[in-house]
């Protein structure tokens, strides 16, 4: 405990770090206050959007910190920006113009960011129309406003809200600590945790339908801690490939001649495979809504029920396939091999060039299999928890997208804080060892971009 308070004191002594942390807390506070401001013309007391807390909408509501179900001005959160970023990233693979921009350094990144912002506006406006028409009941709308005027004003407010949240995220990245967009998503997820724990505790201990008692609640908390530790192992897992650099003599100094490592992530794809797989798993439910006559189909019903064994089996298989796909498009062994060769590096026992690229590709293929299986297990744990009669809100924290984002963002932020401490000759956050973040820089170029 003494070391903990000493670390806090060291953090407070560093003016730059102190200002960055305070700025981060201030920006996050602004975001949380805004998430409780309802859209103009909406009566929050009448609004009862329980449907927005279930299924895919429930996941979006969690990412938005509950703003989605409250019809807040930040109801859409940063998800349109995330969607736009994914689309632009995929365009960089399929469209030569965007692929060229990715190779132009800072100027190319600036143009890509501009395209991402434009696409964010288009996606936000499209989602705002669907949100207003499907999630806000007529009883909650001020009758003084016409339907057309309310829809138009809400589209502008929701779009402005998303752009403002995106601006807050950029300010946190520039003036604060950590990745701003990721921190905003993390805060939205954590904001749901206290209420979920209280509801689960009440269902076990108090009330007429209480089951299990406090002992079962303690077991659930211990199980949650174990799942978090397992997730940390998956997120942090790396396979190090030794790289030897040739010795060079320049003047009176020697360069190179040392061995470094390329850390290949066991889960290089991050949370993206789960997001893609979840999007596909909602197709059966969408088909059922458009064709009521086939709702009684047993296979379709099983695929639409996220607690069924068929749904989870297909879900797990899709995650494994998408993990391989996303790893293949984000990790380029050929580029890593070429960059290593240009810098005079080689893998001991492997010839430079194509042989090195094939060796790296083989290693990535081997470590991706256990990584994808672990990711699939984490993704289906919430469904298993729900089958065991754990509250659906609390069960979401046992795995899936939310838990991986929480673990990744917390580790990344702690790494940045520790970097500030070590740079000023203070001890790190831990007495032994180092906080290993997700964005470790490999010895050779061709780094793997971090997940959300």
TrEMBL record:
Q: Sorted alphabetically, which Gene3D superfamilies does this protein's record hold?
A: SecY subunit domain
One GO BP on record is: protein targeting
* UniProtKB keywords: Cell membrane, Membrane, Protein transport, Translocation, Transmembrane, Transmembrane helix, Transport
Q: Where in the cell is it found?
A: Cell membrane; Membrane
Q: What PROSITE patterns does the record point to? A: SECY_1 (PS00755), SECY_2 (PS00756)
InterPro entries in UniProt: SecY, SecY/SEC61-alpha, SecY_CS, SecY_dom_sf
Q: How does it sit in the membrane?
A: Multi-pass membrane protein
The cross-references to HAMAP family, in alphabetical order and at most eight, read: SecY
Q: How does it assemble?
A: Component of the Sec protein translocase complex. Heterotrimer consisting of SecY, SecE and SecG subunits. The heterotrimers can form oligomers, although 1 heterotrimer is thought to be able to translocate proteins. Interacts with the ribosome. Interacts with SecDF, and other proteins may be involved. Interacts with SecA.
Q: Provide the family line.
A: Belongs to the SecY/SEC61-alpha family.
What is the stated purpose of this protein?
The central subunit of the protein translocation channel SecYEG. Consists of two halves formed by TMs 1-5 and 6-10. These two domains form a lateral gate at the front which open onto the bilayer between TMs 2 and 7, and are clamped together by SecE at the back. The channel is closed by both a pore ring composed of hydrophobic SecY resides and a short helix (helix 2A) on the extracellular side of the membrane which forms a plug. The plug probably moves laterally to allow the channel to open. The ring and the pore may move independently.
Q: What is this protein called?
A: Protein translocase subunit SecY
Origin species: Mucilaginibacter aquatilis
């Amino acid at each position: 405990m003494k070391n903990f308070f000493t670390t806090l004191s060291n953090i407070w002594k560093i003016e730059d770090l102190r200002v960055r942390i305070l700025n981060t807390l201030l920006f996050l506070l602004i975001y949380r206050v805004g998430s409780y401001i309802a859209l103009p013309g909406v009566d929050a007391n009448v609004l009862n959007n329980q449907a927005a807390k279930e299924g895919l909408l429930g996941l979006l509501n969690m990412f938005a910190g509950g703003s989605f179900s409250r019809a807040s001005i930040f109801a859409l959160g940063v998800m349109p920006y995330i969607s736009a970023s994914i689309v632009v990233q995929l365009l960089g693979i399929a469209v030569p113009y965007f692929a060229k921009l990715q190779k132009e350094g800072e100027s190319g990144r600036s143009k890509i960011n501009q395209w991402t912002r434009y696409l964010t506006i288009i996606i936000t406006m499209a989602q705002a129309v669907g949100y207003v028409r499907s999630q806000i009941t007529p009883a909650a709308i001020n009758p003084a406003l016409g339907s057309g005027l309310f829809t138009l004003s809400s589209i502008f407010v929701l779009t402005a809200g998303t752009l403002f949240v995106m601006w807050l995220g950029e300010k946190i990245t520039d003036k604060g600590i950590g990745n701003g967009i990721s921190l905003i998503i993390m805060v939205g997820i954590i904001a749901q945790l206290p209420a979920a724990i209280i509801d689960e505790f009440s269902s076990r201990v108090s009330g007429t339908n209480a089951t299990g008692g406090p002992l079962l609640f303690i077991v659930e908390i211990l199980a949650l801690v174990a799942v978090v530790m397992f997730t940390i192992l998956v997120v942090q897992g790396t396979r190090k490939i030794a790289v030897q650099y040739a010795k060079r003599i320049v003047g009176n100094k020697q360069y190179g001649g040392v061995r470094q490592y390329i850390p290949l992530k066991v889960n290089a794809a991050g949370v993206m495979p789960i997001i893609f797989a979840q999007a596909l798993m909602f197709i059966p439910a969408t088909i059922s809504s458009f064709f009521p006559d086939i709702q009684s189909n047993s296979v379709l019903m099983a695929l639409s029920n996220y607690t069924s064994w068929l749904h989870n089996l297909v879900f797990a298989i899709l995650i494994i396939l998408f993990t391989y796909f996303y790893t293949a498009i984000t990790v380029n062994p050929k580029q890593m091999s070429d960059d290593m060769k240009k810098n005079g590096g080689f893998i001991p026992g492997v010839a430079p060039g194509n042989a090195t690229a094939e060796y790296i590709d083989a290693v990535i293929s081997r470590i991706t299999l256990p990584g994808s299986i672990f990711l699939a297990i984490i993704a289906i744990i919430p469904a298993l928890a729900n089958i065991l009669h754990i509250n659906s809100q609390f069960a979401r924290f046992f795995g899936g997208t939310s838990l991986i984002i929480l673990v990744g963002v917390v580790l990344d932020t702690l790494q940045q804080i520790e970097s500030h401490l070590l740079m000023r000759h203070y001890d790190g956050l831990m007495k032994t060892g180092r906080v290993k973040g997700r964005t470790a820089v490999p010895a050779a170029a061709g780094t793997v971009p971090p997940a959300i």
